[in-house]
């Protein structure tokens, strides 16, 4: 998995959004998690399955989702090729809470093992 941050507090003093892209190899995904803010995810390439609040949705390139704040969700690659997603949050400071452990940490921080940016 590789994450490429686009716009956020790391490269703009004024931006009030956080955006980026994550690339998943076949059969990979993130654990069930939630954020303190809403999130929109656009599938850029490949075949995804989104689990949002216990419901499952099969998605393909060009389709998008919206996840309300506090709702457990995850995306995983159900296809045989690469899956790329673009994610958007409407705030500068984003946290992730892992559903299984309750652990909360800053998105893209050193503690965010599921979404650390690539060099």
UniProtKB/TrEMBL annotation:
SUPFAM superfamilies, A to Z: RmlC-like cupins
UniProt keyword Transit peptide, yes or no: no
Domain Cupin type-2: 23-89
Domain of life: Bacteria
Matches recorded under Pfam families: Cupin_2
PANTHER family per record: CUPIN TYPE-2 DOMAIN-CONTAINING PROTEIN, OXALATE-BINDING PROTEIN
Protein name: Cupin type-2 domain-containing protein
Highest classification ranks of the organism: Bacteria, Bacillati, Actinomycetota, Actinomycetes, Kitasatosporales
């Amino acid at each position: 998995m590789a994450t490429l941050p686009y716009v956020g507090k790391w490269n703009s003093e004024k931006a009030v959004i956080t955006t980026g892209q994550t690339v998943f190899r076949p059969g990979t995904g993130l654990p069930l998690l939630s954020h303190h803010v809403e999130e929109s995810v656009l599938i850029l390439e490949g075949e995804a399955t989104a689990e949002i609040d216990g419901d499952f949705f099969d998605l393909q390139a060009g389709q998008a989702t919206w996840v309300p704040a506090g709702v457990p969700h995850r995306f995983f690659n159900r296809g045989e090729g690469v899956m790329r997603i673009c994610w958007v949050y409407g705030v500068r400071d984003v946290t992730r809470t892992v559903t299984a452990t309750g652990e909360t940490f800053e998105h893209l921080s050193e503690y965010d093992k599921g979404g650390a940016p690539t060099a």
